[in-house]
Amino acid sequence: MSYVSELRGETYEQCRAAADWLLSNTQVRPTVGIVCGSGLGGLAEMIKDPQVFKYSDIPHFPRSTVHGHAGRLVFGTLKGKPCVCMQGRFHLYEGYPIQKITLPMRVFKLMGVETMILTNAAGGLNQDYKVGDIMIIKDHINMPGFAGVNPLSGPNDERFGVRFPCMSDAYDREMRQLALDVASELGYSDFLREGVYCVLGGPSFETIAECRMLHSLGADAVGMSTVHEVIVARHAGMRCFALSLISNKSVMDYDSQKKANHEEVLETGRLRAKHLEKLVSCMVARLERDNNSY
Ligand code: HPA
Questions:
Q1: What CATH code is carried by the domain that includes residue 230?
Q2: How far apart, in whole angstroms, are the C-alpha atoms of residue 216 and residue 144?
Q3: Measured between alpha carbons, how far is 165 from 150 in angstroms, rounded to an integer?
Q4: pLDDT tens, 106-165?
Q5: Which among 104, 112, 238, 246 could bridge 133 via Cys, Cβ 3.0 to 4.6 Å?
Q6: What is the pLDDT of residue 127?
Q7: Which of 225, 244, 247, 281 is catalytic?
Q8: pTM, whole model, 2 decimals?
Q9: Is 13 a known active-site residue?
Q10: Active site residue 140
């Protein structure tokens, strides 16, 4: 592997070292990995018998710098199922190389994780969406990828996956159906949506013209995360499911006085977090009952 890959912290050996360090410090053998988005760290609090590791203590892990992201890895069980949960993730706008942002996915894979559940906060581009809606991501638009910013760029290590991975099945169809079923049983159907998520680099929020453009390109929600992680997780053969909490409506109209801000994002998280946590935990319970066949 090249010197550049080593500097970025993405080599197989570095991922292996992080995985081995974690496996030797916990008894938990997770099969489900969870990533908590902005203001959604409460999911990690649902984990039973938690064993917590600060990112700063884990070999080769980056550190989380964003307010609303705790920066801890929590191991334990959710509804009896062994899980590992990232309470706080890494973003392009923090200045990390994109391969460093996605390193935890490879570490999870090497620890035995088969299913990834990712959450984020996102702006609603679709005019039918309301603040507080939960959107099942059915597909994505990788804007940074159009400019060559893709976590898989650089030499491909076949031990993780193939050079040219397919992305037309990135978001698992059966898990999306499971989410719809569980949401209906919980009475959540009124605020559950399914749509396309577009990732941008951030940290500045979008201009009005950018929001209009993204919407006309087919995006229902816009954010600054998740897609890079999903690409690397799919590359490594993990099944992916992702949810966006619509934390604000994107401003599409020049007469509007509304301004996107991070506080609103966190506040919506506080209002809707319990629903999102319940939806995810009920899904995980069902995965267990059906022996991961859902
Ligand atoms: N734009 C980008 N990212 C976001 C937004 C938004 O409006 N809301 C939450 N994350």
A1: 3.40.50.1580
A2: 18
A3: 12
A4: 999 999 999 999 999 999 999 999 999 999 999 999 999 999 999 999 999 999 999 999
A5: 246
A6: 96
A7: 225
A8: 0.94
A9: no
A10: no
